[in-house]
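Final report, closing paragraph on structural work. Over the funding period we assembled a curated collection of sequence-structure pairs, and we close with a single example.
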Amino acid sequence: MKKAAVVLLMLVAVMMIAPAAFAQGGGDQGKAPLNPTTLALAAGFGVAIAAVGGGLGQGRIAAAACEALRGIRERLGACALPCCWAWCSWKH
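Its predicted structure, as stored:
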């Protein structure tokens, strides 16, 4: 419940701040709004953060799969090893 309240509070805060940001004057229309160097740095950091998040997610999936295979091997004994090899060599 606390998590939902925090998310709702953040949503309300964004909804209150966004109209003020869009209501500001345009200023000089011929000038680019952002420096290209700043934009490139921001894009680089965004891609890096996304790559780290994806890597962490894949690592958690692999860890869960290894734990599941370990449990199968403990229950079935040595006959589970070919099953593990078949599962690992399966092509997507």
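The helical segments are 2-22, 36-76, 80-88. The chain has a mean pLDDT of 76. We thank the funder for supporting this effort.
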